[in-house]
Write a structure and sequence with these properties.
monooxygenase, 415 residues, four-stranded antiparallel beta sheet, nucleotide-binding, Butyryl-CoA Dehydrogenase, subunit A, domain 2, Butyryl-Coa Dehydrogenase, subunit A, domain 1, Butyryl-CoA Dehydrogenase, subunit A, domain 3, EC 1.14.14.21
Length: 415
């Protein structure tokens, strides 16, 4: 006999938010201390957005809670999370405040860079990272910058190495202790280097005016004869072997969290709403089948986005484990294909969901204090960083011709 579902379910029969089966092992234990913190961050997320109050305090909370050391190995003082665990935690952080995930994206990538570094560099940096150091990044250049070479220059002087140049999209650097920079050396070869954020000649400017990610300080950084320690110079452009796939998966985790936040906020607004329309099929929005359909679809998009991130994180973990092995290139290419496939679908799901929430609500949902529009603006900005139209083509070339992704992307003037 089937269970009677016309009556309300007894308390406790549904024990979770129904976002999917939790990761096995220690994830629940690792995530538990962060959830009250995420709730505190979420409480004032809309107000920070409308006031454009940069999240210095929230970032300090995350630093003190050691989320910034999530991937630092336990033996070096970090949390030692696996990649699937880490990306699940990023979804939860993004659900609370997606600007924080974006502001820390470069930092988390720098941690992966250190994980792939030599033991001497690891020893130096793991101690800093475990103690809460945060790294920003300065790689992109605007204007007439070339794809093949950085305009930012590293030169040797009688007083040591010096860095000169201007970068944009330096997300998170305003909040950081260190900045990881891409430059060209005296021979025109690409190098990466790390400098003290407060060194003489470093000027990080809060001039980001994008419609989304308003709290990430993703603006300009200028370097004028900045001193660089020789042991902080690393040859090559890519920070670590699976960097392309990794950085895009951070975006996908951020999008999944944005969708969850939009679904949760819209559902709460519908539940509290008493006003309705004379031509609506129910007196209360919470009993309106059409409104419930909108909320259900938005939530389904969030579930699908989260599931795609979880699957892609497993592919990235396989690529990480393959580094240094004979099948490294194949594993990285496979992870990239999986993540590009997810990217083209997830981005559209989240953009649709964050726009469609307004169909379940009245005009009051567009008032600025609600800041409900921030979810679409942030999602639209994130999906614009690395145009998804190219990912569709890359996946199609792989499917039809077996062509593998070309490796690290570059942006600038061709030639």
């Amino acid at each position: 006999m089937s269970q009677d579902r016309t009556a309300p379910l007894p308390p406790g029969i549904v024990t979770g938010p129904a976002w999917g089966e939790p990761l096995p092992g220690s994830y629940a234990q690792a995530a538990a201390p962060f959830r009250p913190l995420f709730a505190r961050i979420r409480e004032h997320a809309a107000a920070r957005e409308t006031e454009r109050s940069l999240p210095y305090e929230a970032l300090e909370w995350l630093r003190e809670a050691r989320l910034t050391a999530a991937r630092v190995p336990r033996k070096h003082g970090g949390l030692g999370l696996s990649l699937p665990e880490f990306f699940e935690l990023l979804i939860e952080l993004s659900e609370a405040e997606s600007n924080l995930t974006q502001a820390l994206r470069a930092h988390f990538g720098f941690v992966e860079h250190i994980l792939a570094s030599d033991p001497e560099r690891q020893a130096r940096w793991f101690a800093r990272l475990a103690n809460g150091a945060i790294a920003g990044a300065a790689w992109s250049e605007t204007g007439e910058a070339k794809q093949v070479q950085f305009s930012t220059r590293l030169t040797r002087t009688p007083d040591g190495w010096r860095l000169n140049g201007t970068k944009f999209y330096t997300t998170g650097s305003l909040f950081a202790d260190w900045i990881h920079v891409g430059a060209s050396d005296e021979n025109g070869e690409s190098v990466s280097l790390t400098i003290d954020r407060r060194a003489p000649g470093v000027d990080v400017i809060d001039d980001w005016d994008g419609m989304g990610q308003r709290l990430t300080a993703s603006g300009t950084s200028r370097f004028s004869d900045v001193p660089v320690e020789e042991h902080e110079i690393v040859a090559g452009r890519a920070p670590f072997a699976y960097s392309e796939a990794y950085y895009q998966l951070v975006h996908l985790a951020t999008l999944a969290g944005i969708n969850r936040a939009a679904a949760n906020e819209a559902a709460a607004l519908v539940a509290a709403r008493t006003r309705s329309y004379s031509h609506a099929p129910a007196a209360r929005p919470a009993d309106d089948a059409q409104v419930l359909q909108v909320i259900g679809r938005v939530r389904a998009h969030a579930w699908t986005a989260s599931a795609a991130v979880a699957q892609a994180a497993r592919a990235l973990e396989r690529a990480e484990r393959a580094v240094g092995q004979a099948h490294e290139a194949a594993a990285i290419a496979e992870a990239e294909i999986e993540i590009w496939q997810a990217q083209t679908v997830v981005s559209q799901l989240v953009l649709d969901a964050t726009a469609n929430v307004f169909d379940a609500l009245g005009a009051s949902a567009t008032l600025r204090p609600q800041a409900l529009d921030r979810h679409w603006r942030n999602a639209r900005t994130i999906t614009s960083h690395n145009p998804r139209i190219y990912k569709d083509r890359i996946v199609g070339e792989f499917a039809v011709k077996g062509t593998l992704p070309a490796g690290q992307w570059r942006i600038g003037v061709a030639g």
